[in-house]
Amino acid sequence: GAISKSYVRPFVADTNIYAQEEKKKIAAKALTLIQNNMTLLFEGGTTMLELANQLPKNINLTIFTVSPQVAITLSDYENINVYTIGGKLNKNTNIHLGASVINDISNIKYDICFMGVNAVSIEKGVTEMDWETVQVNKAMIKAATQTVLLTISEKLNISKRYKVVDLSDISYLITELDPEDRRLSQYKKQISVI
User: Fold this and answer.
1) Strand ranges (E), the chain
2) Helix ranges, 9-149 (H)
3) Contacts of 141 (CB under 8 A, 6+ apart)
4) Tens of pLDDT, residue by residue, the chain (194 residues)
5) pTM for this predicted structure
6) Does the CA dihedral 112-190-9-90 come out positive or negative?
7) Residue of 176, 182, 189, 194 whose CA lies nearest to 6
8) Rounded Cα distance, 115 and 94, in Å
9) How many angstroms separate the Cα of 63 from the Cα of each of 29, 69, 90, 170, 174?
10) Spatial separation of the C-alpha atoms in residues 155 and 112, rounded to whole Å
11) What does the alpha-carbon distance between residue 154 and residue 142 come to, in Å, rounded to a whole number?
12) Angle, vertex CA 117, rays to CA 156 and CA 30, nearest 5
């Protein structure tokens, strides 16, 4: 069946980014969680690229990512050490997948994992449509002290086929909405909302 453009949008340079203004707001909120000298883990997607673009130029960080585009974006920062975690490239999402990715992720303890999300609901938690992506996401969550979901609000209150994790295993949910928005009231009972 038909699905929203926000779910399957391969990265292509120099094109319009779906819901870009909302993603800029999300990235700005996510920045409030980042402190100097942290070790971070970034998933992929256009929201993660927005976060990478908004990082302060003088911040000292170590960032690991499964996204070639995020790594390239971060290469412009002198004080950020960037490591890519490579494997089989998923051509729809432009992130690396597979057992080698999962193994590499599990060898490091990250302060914060920043993840995009395809679907999140109170009942089903975080869900995905691709089984291999689910496995990488689970490894990312397990390896981080805190996990932050970055999503535009249209991905709330829906679910996909494969479960990643319950909301109780996530530290923060960040959307473009004001945290007091009524659409977030149920989520605030299970998770910190920014």
Assistant:
1) 38-42, 61-65, 80-84, 88-90, 95-97, 110-116, 119-121, 125-128, 144-150, 162-165, 172-174, 192-193
2) 20-31, 46-54, 68-74, 99-106, 131-143
3) 113, 115, 147, 164, 165, 169, 170
4) 555 545 444 444 545 667 778 999 999 999 999 999 999 999 999 999 999 999 999 999 999 999 999 999 999 899 999 999 988 898 888 899 999 999 999 999 999 999 998 899 999 999 999 999 999 999 999 999 999 999 999 999 999 999 999 999 999 999 999 999 999 999 999 999 99
5) 0.88
6) positive
7) 176
8) 14
9) 18, 13, 21, 20, 20
10) 22
11) 26
12) 95
Token representation of residue 67: 């996204």
**Which token pair is 159?**
């679910």
Contacts of 3 (CB under 8 A, 6+ apart): none
Side-chain-side CA neighbours of residue 192 (13 Å) = 11
Q: Report the DSSP pairing between strands 172-174 and 192-193.
A: parallel
For residue 1, which amino acid is it?
G
> Rounded distance, CA 111 to CA 58, Å?
19
